[in-house]
Fold this sequence. Notes:
By secondary structure, the chain is an alpha+beta fold. Helix content is 36%, strand content 25%. It folds into three domains: 3-107, Winged helix-like DNA-binding domain superfamily/Winged helix DNA-binding domain (Arc Repressor Mutant, subunit A, Orthogonal Bundle); 128-212, Roll (SH3 type barrels), CATH 2.30.30; 231-309, Alpha-Beta Plaits (2-Layer Sandwich).
Amino acid sequence: xxxxxxxxxxxxxxxxxxxxxxxxxxxxxxxxxxxxxxxxxxxxxxxxxxxxxxxxxxxxxxxxxxxxxxxxxxxxxxxxxxxxxxxxxxxxxxxxxxxxxxxxxxxxxxxxxxxxxxxxxxxxxxxxxxxxxxxxxxxxxxxxxxxxxxxxxxxxxxxxxxxxxxxxxxxxxxxxxxxxxxxxxxxxxxxxxxxxxxxxxxxxxxxxxxxxxxxxxxxxxxxxxxxxxxxxxxxxxxxxxxxxxxxxxxxxxxxxxxxxxxxxxxxxxxxxxxxxxxxxxxxxxxxxxxxxxxxxxxxxxxxxxxxxxxxxxx
Length: 314
């Protein structure tokens, strides 16, 4: 925790209903008592009125922050969101979260938080490149600045600079992505942040279109791939996979039909087939492509390549 975050947290604690001994404050802030006294002096120097009674410190009456009108359940859920492991890795985001959590503590000191029942867990698959790119992109998007990105393409196996107008950074499927207008082809593309090797400013400015809608853009695909075609996908799943398909939400536009023999027919409209082909192949013989033929060919090709990689033929 940074010094600024600790000072904010200390202010919250002092603004609460109890009075604090320096040893208690030291334990809360994970610092020495000597540092606690220095922090108390720092707060007083900024004009925050601190009182002491029998060795215990608190803010004088009238100096407390106005508490937020949250229920215990609401406060607990907000803290869960702030502890999202995805947001803990990028240093710039983590520092902002520390300050925000400290301020939240001051404004909710009198609220009895509900017992923790929820927890966000998971691995952020983005690497060091994403951590480096994230603050630069945040600043560029906020200022309407265009950038050039050195991007490592998986399909072409090449690295080259691409001129971009960055619209939005988002997290999906375990990694950070950038939605940006590619100036090379005039198309809206999605770029995975850990494949952005470097960024440089161009000095050009842009105005994001008002009609840009990230949710609508992602809803047209299966994962993060964005295509320009329209595919009516129909799949059939074996009975043993029915609970996985029926009781989960895989796509906002999915249509599910339960057949009399226990099998499931699954329909969805997509603009790209690459990602759903890998999803279907992952079920092995439990999933069958009914349409389109292009998707069936992709799944068969994936199976053949997998067999060949393991010394098998079909």
